[in-house]
Amino acid sequence: MAQLALSKVFKSYGELATVHGIDLDVASGEFIVLVGPSGCGKSTTLRMIAGLEDITDGEIRISGKRVNELEPSDRDIAMVFQNYALYPHLSVADNIAFGLKLRGTPRDEIRRRVAETAAILGLEPLLERKPRQLSGGQRQRVAMGRALIRKPSVFLFDEPLSNLDAKLRVQMRTEIKDLHARVPTTTVYVTHDQIEAMTLADRVVVMNKGRIEQVAPPQELYSAPTTKFVAGFIGSPGMNFLPGRIEAHEGSPAFRLSTGDLLPLAQKNEATLISHRDKPMLAGVRPEHFRQCAGGLAPVTISMVEPLGMETLVHFKLAGEASVARLPPSNTLRPGTQLPLQVQSEHIHLIDPETERVVG
Ligand SMILES: Nc1ncnc2c1ncn2[C@@H]1O[C@H](COP(=O)(O)OP(=O)(O)OP(=O)(O)O)[C@@H](O)[C@H]1O
Ligand SMILES: [Mg+2]
């Protein structure tokens, strides 16, 4: 049985529909990340699970029980927000204990659970401090402690790290992953940071305009996106989309770019190739699937070079599209010079621009 199940969940604000029928089953102990551009409905979905927003239609079940009509406090969930607003006049220990006190939990039990939670989060030396005496990361950990101490069935996080600086984000991300490994609570985590999504999730839910585009483990999203949106959203820099057509070239299937260049399509399914032949198509190529090598495409002119240390991003126009390749660092990569490139054709994603679906 799914620990958390959403079926055909809709949300409208007046006339404005923002979530269009979401179906999602989350297994017990699973870490699910909702990711997508700003305004796609991530927070709204999370807030509906939490009970902070009514749902317009559909059903939400937690541990098998319908919760549509239940107050947030009766749903057995705990939520950590971006603005986790600790009580400034209370100590760390009292901040963590706050929810239990409110519920009238006996003192001894509160003391025991605060100690246990502080141990899990490494907060023991800080229990007597006030929030203003903590760093951003420590405050974030206290906010998690407040949620963790309740031992909820489902943990909900809404961009909990977005107020932290880059280095601290990476550290807290690792801590959250480690925490989940030690205390595997069912989790729904919202972020628009795809690295956070990819590194934390058992499965990632990619949302777009109030709909789910794809639900898959991180590696599968990267290697087998099912829509153009997911193909372009996952991966940084994003996938290049090169316009052209599928042709039979000397008996072998190939993708002909508008420049005349041919990309072999030997590994693709024949029926797929035949059904999409001779109409406008897109070849999706990730930046890392170009090779600097003669004998492939006609050389392109480098427009910009971004050295990143371990790799260099090289920008150029290909088939009329601004494109980018991820290449090993080299002194010869300079703007204005010619660059011979090959495409690793086994990694091409064929996209039908009409349906925006990846067909092969
Ligand atoms: N109370 C409200 N009344 C009307 N519209 C709302 C309300 N709350 C959210 N919306 C709209 O619903 C849509 C989804 O908002 P939501 O906050 O879920 O986006 P999000 O994916 O969390 O975005 P972000 O990454 O910016 O946090 C947006 O278009 C937003 O303007
Ligand atoms: Mg949001």
Automatic annotation (TrEMBL):
<dbReference type="InterPro" id="IPR003593">
    <property type="entry name" value="AAA+_ATPase"/>
</dbReference>
<dbReference type="InterPro" id="IPR003439">
    <property type="entry name" value="ABC_transporter-like_ATP-bd"/>
</dbReference>
<feature type="domain" description="ABC transporter">
    <location>
        <begin position="4"/>
        <end position="234"/>
    </location>
</feature>
<keyword id="KW-0547">Nucleotide-binding</keyword>
<dbReference type="InterPro" id="IPR012340">
    <property type="entry name" value="NA-bd_OB-fold"/>
</dbReference>
<dbReference type="Pfam" id="PF00005">
    <property type="entry name" value="ABC_tran"/>
</dbReference>
<dbReference type="InterPro" id="IPR015855">
    <property type="entry name" value="ABC_transpr_MalK-like"/>
</dbReference>
<dbReference type="InterPro" id="IPR027417">
    <property type="entry name" value="P-loop_NTPase"/>
</dbReference>
<protein>
    <submittedName>
        <fullName>Sn-glycerol-3-phosphate ABC transporter ATP-binding protein UgpC</fullName>
    </submittedName>
</protein>
<keyword id="KW-0067">ATP-binding</keyword>
<dbReference type="InterPro" id="IPR040582">
    <property type="entry name" value="OB_MalK-like"/>
</dbReference>
<dbReference type="InterPro" id="IPR047641">
    <property type="entry name" value="ABC_transpr_MalK/UgpC-like"/>
</dbReference>
<dbReference type="Pfam" id="PF17912">
    <property type="entry name" value="OB_MalK"/>
</dbReference>
<comment type="similarity">
    <text>Belongs to the ABC transporter superfamily.</text>
</comment>
<dbReference type="InterPro" id="IPR008995">
    <property type="entry name" value="Mo/tungstate-bd_C_term_dom"/>
</dbReference>
<keyword id="KW-0813">Transport</keyword>
<dbReference type="InterPro" id="IPR017871">
    <property type="entry name" value="ABC_transporter-like_CS"/>
</dbReference>
<dbReference type="GO" id="GO:0005524">
    <property type="term" value="F:ATP binding"/>
</dbReference>
